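Tip: read the tokens left to right.
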């Protein structure tokens, strides 16, 4: 039978897109008793992170999870607790990649081939971007098969059975394959029907099946992303965990009307609410209808490092309104100097305010937030990713705050309490001025912008996330160069 060219006609406007998450791995290859997709990274299983990606993708209509047969109930429990808005079905996978794909195709037998798109994605690639998902779906308007790949930074060599080099292919023509791999359902169905008639059929991915058994079908390549890594080896677990820690979630885009509707009637407690970012958050929330209680050392003589004073402040706010929906802590101290020249009292003050205070606020706020399914918002600094000379105490405490955020998001998930962390770029605040003096106009982020993003995060469903706030688009090459130059100056 001659190969057909499914690209001859585009899919109909009624096309549905189904994400098939391939989660059949066992973990034995890296010596694990639990499948890799059920390991936790950044407070959630790898599988849940991956499912969230497709749940958030506007172009995905359904999700099908092909799970390791011995752990189907575990996957079903993850789906149940996560409360995804996209329909998710969990089915047992097969004994091989090809068998699992075929079982997925069998489950989709009732779907029309020309008006259904399928995206096959490795469950252990939890850092897939929304851009790649959207690009794959868009590419299926013109192509019947789509792969995702990135250029190879390394020279690829070909060797024989004795490990002697036989060829060095031209690197400019080589790519490293990723997932998802996307197809019109009719195309991948036909490819597999032909493949199973071949006694020697074996393939490590689905585009290879199309390439070999439907040779007349062009396979379009969408640009991948270096972060779209596959958790394969033990070290990958640690790398992925660090990438999650460094990745910044995007704050939702809300209108003024949205904010007013969601804030009216709520109660917010802001520690550090007299100056800088704290004052900005409090004022912004008040203008949109929230009842805000501000506490600070200067205005109310509230020491955030004293658990009793924190508890009293929260009790006062709750007594006045009968609820606490949001708790924000912007209080902090930034003292510049070498650690070996810092006296013990200053060390204790830094640790109590910058780390023990967030811990104490979290403990005291939890019972109130559990009643309202509310959120705690903490603040970190760009120095959390790399300790800076002469403020080691501050940067290390901010790194600890990020880990605290991610850990508590996991602990509190079952109680419906959210916690996030704002990571503002260098911001114009009284604390920064005291530490660094006057800095050139236009080089600092405004406290008002941080406040606006903070409120939008409080009104979101995000939890366990580090949310960047920047003056410039961080992906813009000019902005990256400018940031690097500023870093060198400092």
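Filled-in amino acids:
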């Amino acid at each position: 039978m001659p190969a057909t060219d499914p690209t001859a006609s585009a899919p109909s406007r009624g096309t549905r897109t189904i994400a098939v998450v391939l989660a059949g791995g066992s973990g034995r290859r890296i010596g694990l008793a639990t499948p890799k997709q059920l390991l936790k990274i950044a407070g959630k299983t790898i599988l849940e992170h991956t499912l969230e990606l497709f749940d958030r993708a506007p172009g995905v209509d359904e999700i099908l999870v092909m799970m390791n047969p011995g752990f189907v109930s575990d996957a079903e429990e993850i789906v149940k607790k996560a409360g995804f808005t996209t329909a998710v079905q969990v089915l047992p996978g097969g004994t091989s990649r090809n068998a699992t794909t075929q079982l997925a195709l069998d489950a989709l037998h009732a779907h029309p081939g020309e008006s259904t798109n399928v995206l096959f994605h490795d469950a252990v690639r939890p850092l897939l971007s929304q851009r790649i998902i959207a690009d794959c779906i868009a590419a299926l308007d013109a192509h019947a098969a789509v792969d995702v790949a990135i250029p190879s930074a390394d020279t690829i060599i070909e060797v024989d059975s004795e490990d002697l080099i036989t060829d060095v292919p031209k690197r400019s023509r080589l790519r490293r394959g990723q997932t998802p791999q996307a197809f019109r359902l009719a195309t991948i169905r036909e490819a597999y029907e032909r493949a199973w008639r071949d006694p020697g059929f074996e393939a490590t991915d689905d585009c290879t099946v199309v390439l070999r058994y439907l040779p007349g079908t062009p396979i379009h390549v969408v640009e991948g992303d270096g972060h779209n890594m596959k958790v394969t080896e033990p070290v990958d677990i640690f790398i992925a965990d660090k990438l999650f820690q460094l990745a910044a979630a995007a704050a939702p885009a809300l209108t003024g009307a949205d904010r007013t509707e969601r804030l009216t009637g709520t109660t917010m407690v802001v520690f550090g609410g007299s100056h800088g970012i704290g004052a900005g958050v409090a004022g912004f929330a008040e203008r949109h209808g929230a009842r805000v209680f501000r506490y600070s050392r200067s205005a109310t003589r509230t020491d955030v490092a004293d658990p009793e004073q924190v508890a009293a402040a929260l009790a006062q706010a709750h007594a006045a309104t009968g609820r606490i929906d949001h708790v924000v802590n912007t209080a902090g101290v930034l003292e510049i100097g070498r650690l070996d020249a810092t006296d013990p009292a200053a060390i204790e003050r830094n640790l109590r305010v910058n780390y023990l205070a967030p811990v104490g606020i979290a403990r005291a706020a939890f019972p109130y937030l559990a009643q309202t399914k509310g959120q705690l918002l903490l603040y970190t600094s760009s120095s959390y990713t790399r300790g800076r000379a002469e403020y080691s105490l501050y940067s290390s405490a901010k790194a600890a705050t990020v880990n605290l955020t991610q850990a508590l998001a996991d602990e509190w998930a079952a109680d419906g309490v959210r916690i996030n962390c704002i990571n503002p770029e260098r911001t114009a605040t009284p604390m920064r001025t005291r530490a660094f003096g006057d800095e050139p106009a236009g080089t600092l982020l405004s406290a008002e912008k941080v406040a606006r993003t903070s409120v939008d995060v409080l009104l979101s469903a995000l939890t366990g996330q580090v949310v960047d706030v920047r003056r410039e688009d961080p992906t813009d090459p000019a902005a990256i160069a400018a940031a690097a130059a500023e870093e060198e100056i400092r």
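The domain at 249-489 is CATH 3.40.50.720 (Rossmann fold). Residues 1-12, 473-490 have pLDDT under 50 and may be disordered.
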